[in-house]
Amino acid sequence: MIKYDSYNREERAICAHLFRLLHENLDKKRNSPLGKFLNYLSESNLIFRNGQPNLNDLKFENVSIYCEASIIRDAYHNRKPDVFQLMDSITKKVMEHEKISDCRLFSKLPDELNNYLNTHPKQIRQKAERLNIPLSQNEKIVYGAIQGMFNAKPDLVILIDNIMLVCEAKLTQDFDSIQIKRTWNISQVWAEVLYEDLGFTKPPVYTVFKLGANLFNPDINWTNCNEIAKSQYNENDRTRIAIQEGMNLLKNEKLE
Known about the structure:
- By secondary structure, the chain is of the alpha/beta class.
- The protein has 10 helices and 5 strands; from the N terminus they run H-H-E-H-H-H-H-H-E-E-H-E-E-H-H.
- The protein has helices spanning 11-22, 33-42, 71-79, 84-98, 111-114, 124-130, 137-151, 177-192, 222-232, 238-252; strands spanning 64-67, 156-160, 163-169, 205-212, 220-221.
């Protein structure tokens, strides 16, 4: 074993191994690692939007899994040069989130701020300040929130049947309520604005779930993931080692 394995505290590293694990034997559906993961998740009282699905009654159709997903950022890049429709839709959703009605849509901003050749959406506030372009307080709030959406990368996204499951994962840390709220907002944009990009024919049922140490009351914990890894891999497999060492780290810090 490599010594660093025993003290690596970065959740993106262990999530990368989980990403690999959940892709194994998908043809086995309910008996696959993904199926077992969803079995554990079904035991939580998840709150969905757009419906309330039964995770024990899945067909395992159109399965996709994404790690550190930047779907809004990539959709913007994909639509260049015709970005106004997408960005106006995102702006309207963010105005709903922030309970703001008085804000210019992206397409109505000055050319220096909405021309993709000049300014990326995550730079609008800073660019406006630097060029002395006035933004109202509401616009600063809305475009600040949009900046956060473009910068954020939820740890794991699972698409299955007509369901989108978005994961916020922590290893040794507690969950941050502001981050969770932002992930819900991002998920709404994905589900209601970008659902066709994700292979859905209509807005999916969706939720945000927490994966972490037992101490922090997650919806699914690393112990569950470790059990799945043990059932899938031999003791010398790097993914099994990484997840087990993550468990050992939690135990040592009394977070298990």
